[in-house]
Amino acid sequence: MTPIVFPVTAALLFAIGLYGVLTRARLIQRLLAVNLMASAIFLFLIVTSTGGPHGPDPVPQAMVLTGIVVALSTMAYALVLIRHLRVLTRAETLESIVDD
Amino acid sequence: MLPVFDTMLCLGLLWLGWGIVASTTLFRGVVLFMVFGLLMAVTWVRLSAPDVALAEAVIGAGIAGALLLGACKAMLSDPGTPAEQGGPEPAALPRLPAAALSLLVGAALAWLMVTVRGGGPVPEAVAIALPTHFLHNPVSVILLDLRGYDTLMETVVLLLAFLGARAMMRHSELDPLFTPVATHRHYTMPLITLLTPILLLLALHILWTGGNAPGGAFQAGALLAALGVMYQLTGHLRPSRESGPGVRALLVCGLLVFSLFACLGLTWGDAPLTYPRGAGYVSALVVEIALMLSIGTTLTLLFAAHPGLKPDLRQ
Question: Which of A11, A51, A75, B159 would staple B109 via disulfide (CB 3.0–4.6 Å)?
């Protein structure tokens, strides 16, 4: 059985990430918080893969590998969008665009 | 000993996570995010997932860190940088209700996650396929054979992300982010000549052993991208607005070879993405090499923030 600290950490990391998404206004900071939530989910998936009678289950591990690459792709595209948003509108947050 | 280590590891993750969310400057958040990735890699090793640990170390901490540092640089060098940079940031939501909501969600998740934390047997289909499979690394068996469709779609996602970014780059024509001005070849050549063979060897080794030990195309591709990033930072590769036929071929070759292979499965099997009897290992290797080249090129170009790259041979 996996030590209990890992699933608890996954839940708390998700909560921290959620708090960041809700309170941070700057878009890149919000993106970092979203990635934190993704890491928390990956941690939970890997926790479910361990502790079986015949060694770790490779299916969640392969899913997390795929997830890491997809998360990176999303982040790369989001960074480009944020950069161009700032160049075009001089805005760092979505709220400031709505206000204008 | 190990429970103490696990607890310290988890406390470190939580502390870094809080540091990322609460960071006042972007640079601080980005650096903490990279350290978080490294600590995450250690956590994957502790949870007996070495494949994921390798991917996290090179992709999550390495390439993502490079992209984020590029974003920090863009903050400083792009036109239209807001004057209030570093000034107080308005909170999107009031902090107290947000904290209460997050804690509530966290508590519910903790209860759920502790209740269902693993311990189940390996799925039957996997347990049957593993002992007789031509690949010996269980994760590679899943990625390349049993769930090959996921991997195919994953390469589509990566290519789409780049194509989307490329469309934006062409539209706005921003300046290159990294233009080394004062670096002389005498200073950068030793680094290049030392690290190029080491990184190439590492990438090929990780690709080659990926079938039987932790590793694979994605980790190897990210290592190639690290090489590309180094060549850009030292000025040996320069971003260009045009992408030549070679770059375009490298970008799509992974998806092309993989899709072709998926269709060919219908000629020697009864379903797409099946492996030919007797030649399974060779075809898996061909697909992996093509994937590695495409992933390396895509990640390098994403860092360059330009459609193409050209070698700079000036002395």
Answer: A11
CA atoms within 13 A on the CB side of A64: 31
CB nearest B126 (choices: A26, A59, A64): A59
What Å distances lie between residue B172 and A77, A96, B60, CA to CA? Answer: 15, 21, 28
What is the SS3 assignment for B308? strand
Q: Per the structure block, which two tokens stand in for B301?
A: 């170009």
A26 - beta bridge partners? A93
pLDDT tens, position by position, for chain A (100 residues)? 567 899 999 999 999 999 999 998 888 999 999 999 999 999 999 998 887 777 788 899 999 999 999 999 999 999 999 988 888 887 777 777 766 5
* Distance separating alpha carbons of residues B91 and B101, to the nearest angstrom: 15
Q: Please give the torsion angle defined by the CA atoms of residues B302, A39, B101 and A81, in that order, rounded to the nearest 10 degrees.
A: 0
What pTM did the predictor assign? 0.91
Identify which of B18, B123, B161 has the shortest CB distance to residue A16: B18
Instruction: For residue B304, give the amino acid letter.
Output: A
Total CB pairs under 8 A between chain A and B: 281
Side chain identity, residue A72: L
